[in-house]
């Protein structure tokens, strides 16, 4: 995730009273100038900013053929495990949950487009988590961060953001097929389309006005309105839930459903996707760590991130546990900055977030009835925020601009991230060679180019 708002310094406040006892010793509350009350409030703030994932992740991944109610439980449980680990191991105010973007690629690229069963896709994500864990515990982490060109990283992130926007609008019926123009806007005489349009205006207004919990509030408002908006087959857009609360549901259909054999029998096809998930997870975590620790003034005097190895390893481990439960890549959330702005400085903030996700398990009947018209505007905002990296690129330099634009446009127009990544990478190599900078192309990029060429040959034989 990219940040919802630019980090702001927390307002000056009187120093909290010194904490004592087990919590102070465990989290160094006094040393970081915070208190139990402040940490709990920060955790509540962070949860409010990211709670939308409990509704959005199941809504997306259920399109892969997975049970939506089980996905609600898997999402919350993965967030609980990851946030608890981050709090106790890394002692950082970072909340962890299933990643936006990766769930879209999992569902619409890997399962629906490439035809991989979701069990095999879960195995691939878990395998990526293992690779990420090895990377996190070794010195390779610094080399990867240095060698992947900024243009390729930003191009991939922007492409995923654009794909999220397109899929969200298509799922809500706001974008439809058209025999003449291929795609067109849905009819404004359609009540669900009008509901989505209202959400597209409401949601960014709430965000720019810095309304607390803007995305989950938007989803809640649109879901409530959906009870009175007629949809298909004479039913309302939002169906009536079977209950408001219920005992937490164990994700029986998705737990330990990984198909490891399928992954290794289709390894060549999966290789580019493994690279995507590994890079997406690594750089998302790196960016989040830099942003959150900077906003919290937790960096060491030399600028390094405290407990960075533990934080990276937590993300990696959570991305192994997530697929075991039945969800995609799990990562640290940039929305944790909202908790930092509320005063969060330690892992107690993360434990508080985990506690709220535990409470959310009791409300799963509500999350499963949220319609796509309610989640689409939130997804559009997420996609827009993932494109913010484009501002860091000099688009007048064609060596940078062409790979980014090709990655973004080819991904969206072909509805295939691998196509965009392949053309973007190969164009980057070609342009660097053309301007006489062949020696500056990292070996990792050359290797990625070979992978994409091999991938194209294999796919051409299959389809």
UniProtKB/TrEMBL annotation:
Membrane topology classification: Multi-pass membrane protein
Keyword Nucleotide-binding in record: no
InterPro entries per UniProt: Azg-like, NCS2
One GO cellular component term: plasma membrane
Keyword tags: Membrane, Transmembrane, Transmembrane helix, Transport
UniProt-annotated location(s): Endomembrane system
Highest rank taxon of the organism: Bacteria
Molecular function terms from GO: purine nucleobase transmembrane transporter activity
TM regions (residue ranges): 40-60, 72-96, 116-137, 158-176, 188-207, 214-232, 351-370, 376-393, 405-431, 443-462
Cited Pfam families: Xan_ur_permease (PF00860)
Family: Belongs to the nucleobase:cation symporter-2 (NCS2) (TC 2.A.40) family. Azg-like subfamily.
Listed name of the protein: NCS2 family permease
């Amino acid at each position: 995730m990219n940040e919802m708002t630019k980090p702001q310094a927390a307002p000056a406040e009187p120093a909290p009273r010194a904490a004592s006892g087990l919590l102070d010793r465990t989290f160094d509350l006094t040393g970081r100038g915070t208190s139990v009350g402040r940490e709990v409030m920060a955790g509540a703030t962070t949860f409010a900013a990211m709670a939308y994932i409990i509704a959005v992740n199941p809504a997306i991944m259920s399109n892969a053929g997975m049970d939506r109610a089980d996905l609600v439980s898997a999402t919350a449980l993965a967030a609980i495990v990851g946030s608890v680990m981050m709090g106790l191991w890394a002692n950082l105010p970072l909340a962890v949950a299933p990643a936006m973007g990766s769930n879209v690629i999992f569902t619409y690229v890997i399962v629906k487009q490439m035809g991989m069963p979701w069990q095999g896709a879960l195995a691939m994500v878990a395998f990526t988590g293992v690779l990420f864990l090895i990377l996190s515990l070794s010195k390779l982490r610094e080399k990867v961060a240095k060698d992947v060109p900024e243009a390729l990283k930003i191009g991939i992130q922007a492409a995923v953001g654009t794909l999220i926007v397109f899929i969200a609008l298509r799922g809500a019926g706001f974008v439809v097929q058209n025999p003449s123009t291929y795609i067109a806007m849905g009819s404004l005489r359609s009540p669900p389309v009008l509901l989505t349009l209202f959400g597209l205006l409401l949601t960014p207004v709430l965000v720019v006005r810095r309304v607390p919990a803007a995305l989950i509030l938007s989803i809640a408002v649109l879901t409530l309105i959906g009870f009175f908006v007629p949809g298909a087959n004479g039913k309302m857009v939002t169906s009536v839930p079977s209950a408001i609360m219920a005992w937490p549901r164990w994700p029986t259909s998705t737990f330990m459903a990984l198909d490891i054999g399928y992954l290794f029998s289709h390894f060549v096809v999966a290789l580019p996707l493994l690279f995507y998930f590994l890079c997406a997870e690594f750089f998302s975590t790196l960016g989040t760590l830099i942003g959150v620790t900077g906003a919290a003034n937790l960096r060491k005097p030399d600028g390094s991130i405290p407990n960075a190895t533990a934080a990276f390893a937590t993300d990696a481990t959570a991305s192994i546990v997530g697929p075991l439960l039945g969800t995609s890549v799990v990562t640290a959330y940039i929305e944790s900055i909202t908790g930092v702005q509320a005063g969060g400085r330690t892992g107690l903030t993360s434990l508080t977030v985990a506690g709220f996700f535990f409470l959310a398990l009791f409300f799963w009947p509500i999350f499963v009835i949220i319609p796509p018209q309610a989640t689409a505007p939130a997804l559009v905002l997420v996609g827009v925020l993932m494109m913010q990296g484009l501002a860091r690129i000099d688009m007048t330099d064609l060596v940078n601009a062409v790979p980014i634009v090709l990655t973004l446009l080819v991904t969206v127009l072909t509805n295939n991230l691998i196509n965009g990544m392949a053309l973007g990478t190969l164009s980057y190599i070609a342009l660097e060679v053309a301007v006489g900078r062949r020696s500056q192309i990292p070996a990792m990029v050359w290797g990625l180019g070979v992978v994409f060429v091999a991938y194209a040959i294999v796919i051409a034989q299959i389809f």
